[in-house]
Amino acid sequence: MEAQKFNDFYIFDDGGVRYFLFVDDNKSILFDCGFGNNDVLADIKDITSYKPTVYLSHGDMDHAGGLKYFDECYLNKGDHHLINNDIIIHDLNEGDTIDIGQYHFEVIELAGHTYGSVVFLDKNKKLLLAGDSVQTGPIYMFGDHRNLDLYIETLKKLQTYKGDIETIMACHHDYPIGIEYIDYCLEDAIALKAGKLSGTPHEFMPCKVYQGKYVVFYY
User: Fold this and answer.
1) Rounded to two decimals, what is the model's pTM?
2) What is the DSSP string of the chain?
3) Residue 103's pLDDT band (cuts 50, 70, 90)
4) Which of these, 97, 92, 95, lies nearest to 79 by C-alpha position?
5) How far apart are CA 121 and CA 80, in angstroms?
6) Long-range interactions of 146-150: CB distance < 8 A, separation 24+
7) Model confidence over 186-214: pLDDT tens digits?
8) Residue 34 — left, alpha, or beta (φ > 0 → left; ψ -120 to 50 → alpha)?
9) How many C-alpha atoms does 1 have within 13 Å on its Cβ side?
C-alpha cells in the first residue's frame, strides 16, 4: 500500500482505516497499524529502514490488527484486554509525551469509544491525531467496551484544548477536519444520550444507526 505524504509525515489508508508514520534521522513511530491485511512493515521499508515503535489510539482490531508484524506496542491499560497478539504491551497514560523529529505529542486519555482510547496532541504544530473519537462518523458506540457517558465527559475535557488545535486527523472518513468537530461530536452525543435522535436498525450489525446534526453513531 502506497503512503501519502501530508506535510512531513505519512498517511497509510487501506480504504477502511487510516494510520500515520513519523520519521526522523534516528527512529520512526507508527500511530495505529491498521487491520493487518497488508504487510505493514514492507510498506514502511519503502520510506525508512527504522522499524517503528507502535502507539495505539485504542485497541479495536482495525487499529491493532497490524500488531502481528511487531513485538511490542504502547496502549492505554483500558484496552489491554482487546489485544490478542502475543506481544509486549507498554502502558500509555495521560500526560505521556512522544518526541519524533519536530513533533512533540502529548497523550490525552479520551475514554468512551473504548475505555482505553487516547488522542495525541502536538500543541506547537496544533495537530491532533484523534483515533476514532473525533470524526464525521459513523462512530461505533455499541458493545461492552464502549461507554457513551464517558465519551461525553471526555469530549468536554478535549474542548479545553481547542486553543491548541487547528488540524484534526481522523482514522476514518473525512480528513483533515477542523476543531469544530469536537463540538459537533459532543453536541450529537448529548442528543443521542437524551433520546433525541431516531435510530434505524443496522443491516447486519447488532446496533442502530443514529444520524445526528453533524455526526453518525452506531449505538
Assistant:
1) 0.97
2) -PPEEETTEEEEE-SS-EEEEEE-SS-EEEE----SSS-HHHHHHTT-SSPPEEE-S---HHHHGGGGG-SEEEE-GGGGGG--SS-EEEE--TT-EEEETTEEEEEEE-TTSSTT-EEEEETTTTEEE-TTTSSSSPEE--STT--HHHHHHHHHHHHTTGGG-SEEE-SSSS-SB-THHHHHHHHHHHHHHTT-S-EEE-SSSSSEEEE-SS-EEE-
3) very high
4) 92
5) 22
6) 146/112, 146/113, 146/114, 146/115, 147/111, 147/112, 147/115, 148/112, 148/189, 148/192, 148/193, 148/219, 149/112, 149/193, 150/111, 150/112, 150/115
7) 999 999 999 999 999 999 999 999 999 99
8) left
9) 24
